[in-house]
Amino acid sequence: MADTTNLLVLESPILPVLTQRRSPRAYSSQPVPADVLKQVFAAASSAASCFGEQPWRYLVGTRATSPEAYNKILTSMGEFNQVWAKSAPVLAVSIAKLHFSHDDNPNRHALHDVGQATATLAIQAAELGLQVHQMAGFSIDKVRTAFGLPAGYEPVAVFTLGYPGDPASLPDGLRDKEIAPRVRKPLAEFMFEGEWPTPATERYDQATV
């Protein structure tokens, strides 16, 4: 069942699943079935990548079946994120392979391509009634050490995955963020046809999740 909480409203119509995708902090304790988990991560395979390299890798920990990996990922996060992320049944780290396989040259598009794959994964999750919350607030060094990550691979982000839960389960400050209206910058602030503009203002305060 689709998550229709706090749908995104934009100036032009888009695919319904894109309006449903959000970054919750409240998660249900309901486990994600193994076949559904595979379906979500399989969606990453459909993303475009430079030379078809597919430089994305994912370390995954589930509370139910791989608790040690789950705890390694959780403890790599900043304390603020741990407060709510520990309610999600699945935690993951996206990782970029930094060199091309065919010639070992640096792949300057690797992080971009990993982002594309994870965005695709998140959309598939939303289609299945799940949600993903991606975070920059984690320690790259802790991930490297905990999982013995080899040279040439760079942790990009951590994320939660699970079925949305009750916002009332969150502390006061986070509860307000969970239910606040979702706002995006208007097209005029980031779509520039023909030439580079000189906008009078940039409203970064409107980039809420």
Automatic annotation (TrEMBL):
The keyword Oxidoreductase applies. InterPro entries: Nitroreductase, Nitroreductase-like. Gene3D superfamilies: NADH Oxidase. Pfam families: Nitroreductase. GO terms for molecular function: oxidoreductase activity. Keywords: Oxidoreductase. Residues 19-73, 76-163 form the Nitroreductase domain. It comes from the Bacteria. PANTHER family: NAD(P)H NITROREDUCTASE YDGI-RELATED, NADH DEHYDROGENASE_NAD(P)H NITROREDUCTASE XCC3605-RELATED. Belongs to the nitroreductase family. This is Nitroreductase domain-containing protein. It comes from Hymenobacter sedentarius. The lineage of its organism: Bacteria, Pseudomonadati, Bacteroidota, Cytophagia, Cytophagales.
